[in-house]
Design goal:
122 residues, mainly alpha, two-stranded antiparallel sheet, X8 domain-containing protein, X8, X8_dom_prot, signal
Length: 122
Amino acid sequence: MAAPLFLLLLLLAMFTGSADAAFCVCKTGVPDQAMQAAIDYACAKGADCASASKGAPCYGNGNKVAVCSYICNSYYQSRSATGATCDFNGVAMATGSWRARHSQTGSRLGGPPARALVDVRR
């Protein structure tokens, strides 16, 4: 467990921009079907879904909101240069703090994925 977390933190140190960077996180209370649609869309468009699949380093404790957030944020960050937004048909929202948002969901991801941007409306 410590090795994957260390690797994630190392990647964060390498790729994360400023401390006030925006992150795309999935909202709590959203139906699983809507969250799954956002995950499927992001995965189909090139998000890092392998790292958040069951048994992978960023799967954490399997919390659906945390896994959705990891994947949506991966897509969101990869599209930042094109001005994409974080919404996923109301499933997600942009926030300045990954840790503050995920302390409410019980996520054990430890931190945001490496910077990468998203918009299901494009």
